[in-house]
Write a structure and sequence with these properties.
Shape: rod-shaped
Largest sheet: 6 strands, antiparallel
Helix content: under 10%
Radius of gyration: 39 Å
Oligomer: single chain
Strand content: 35-45%
Distance between the termini: 131 Å
Length: 408
């Protein structure tokens, strides 16, 4: 009798081991292999990470709570911190689990939410008339409508919509790096997977000042800007979604006019005066110029607009404006290319052509061989011009070693 009872006990224990414990010897095609979790009896649901191919993560809902594996089932651990009921009959993962780490557990004590991949849980049971949860299902559009459905024991199906708390994404801020033009378009792209973009909220600031004249859509914003000074410039792009979540992303770029050319004076009143610009044939692309006289933009050619001109390779552009007398004169190569530039002056039978001084050649000391304000018919000036719009220039003129009086 005792032997028969012992035999039955041993047979029962063997059957228990077959049902509960893993047996790699049974592994093979067209048959099941035990993978745990051991200790979490009565497994009601299994949910795989949407990114399972790379993270090997899945969750199991059991009478012992939620179990998690990150190695495809080789080993498991209980993740029940915050669960007031460990009778878990359903587990569901966010489609964006890889980034938002969000999952849900349906238990005999209601629905629980984890936003840290199961490390902790909190109940979301407001409105439930039955907290015995048998099944959970996410809306196919959960990424945008944030809606979860729960099947209960006595209350039917319930739905729960989460508020949109994810800010928009802002990308591709342009320009970046170094540009060789003082006119450009600031732009950025943005998107929102929740409530959608509020395009009226999109805005751009340049060096801390709001940029006007922008065009904003549901996916991008663009703002033409001109008159950019050389140096670094800071951009900030801000946008909000329809739920009020905002994003503000910073960017920067540098304007570097590789070649500016200067003359001290322009006189279109007492003489015929031209500014000439020529693009070398070998350049291979159009060259753009900007011209300023006494810091005022001048029209190089009516077809190109105020203050700008475009020259094809091997071609020449000229500026002449009768009645204008002022300085200094600045000619900027907006595309950063070297060019041939000069100022041509015709007065009576006198003709002179003066090359522009490259910005890189500007110096603190200049020399001439002679000064003559004595000989008959001679009128001799030394002209000093300051190209800066912010800093003073202090100068001294010497002739034969003697300091000459300052003149206006």
């Amino acid at each position: 009798m005792k032997f028969g009872m012992m035999a039955r006990l041993l047979a029962g224990l063997f059957l228990f081991c077959l049902l509960v414990l893993p047996s790699t010897g049974f592994a093979g095609t067209n048959q099941w292999t035990g993978n745990g979790p051991y200790g979490g009896l009565n497994i009601y649901s299994v949910a795989l990470s949407p990114n399972f191919a790379s993270d090997q993560t899945l969750f199991a809902g059991t009478l012992g709570g939620v179990f998690k594996t990150t190695n495809g089932g080789t080993s498991w651990s209980a993740v029940n911190s915050g669960l007031t009921s460990t009778a878990v009959k359903s587990v569901a993962l966010s489609p964006n689990f890889a980034t938002d780490h969000t999952l849900f557990a349906g238990t005999n004590g209601g629905v629980f939410l984890s936003t840290n991949a199961g490390a902790s849980w909190s109940a979301i049971n407001s409105g439930l008339t039955s907290t015995s949860i048998y099944s959970l299902a996410l809306s196919p559009s959960f990424a945008t409508d944030h809606t979860l459905f729960a099947g209960t024991g006595t209350g039917g199906v319930f739905s729960y919509t989460f508020p949109d708390t994810t800010p928009p994404s802002v990308t591709n801020i342009q320009p970046s790096g170094t540009i060789k033009t003082n006119s450009t378009t600031i732009s950025a792209n943005y998107s929102d997977s929740g409530s959608g973009i509020n395009s009226a909220s999109a805005a751009v600031t340049l060096d801390g000042t709001a940029v006007s004249g922008c065009t904003a859509t549901a996916t991008s914003i663009s703002c033409p800007v001109s008159g950019l000074a050389d140096g670094s410039h800071a951009i900030a792009v801000s946008v909000a979604d329809n739920a009020g979540n905002t994003s503000r992303i910073n960017g920067s770029f540098t304007v570097a006019h590789a070649h500016n050319y200067y003359w001290t004076w322009y006189d279109g009143k007492n003489m015929a005066n031209w500014i000439l610009m020529a693009a070398p044939t070998s350049l291979g692309h159009n060259l753009s110029f900007g011209l300023g006289i006494a810091s005022k933009s001048e029209s190089l050619d009516n077809s190109f607009g105020l203050g700008a001109g475009v020259i094809a390779p091997g071609d020449t552009l000229k500026f002449k404006q009768d009645g204008t007398i002022d300085g200094p004169v600045k000619l900027g190569s907006l595309t950063g290319d070297k060019a041939v530039v000069s100022q041509r002056m015709l007065m009576g039978n006198s003709f002179e052509e003066v090359p522009g001084i490259d910005e890189a050649s500007l110096s603190g000391h200049y020399y001439w061989t002679w000064y003559d304000q004595k000989s008959s018919g001679m009128a001799d000036w030394v002209l000093v011009a300051n190209p800066s719009t912010t800093d003073n220039v202090y100068y001294q003129v010497r002739v034969a070693g003697k300091v000459m009086p300052q003149a206006q």
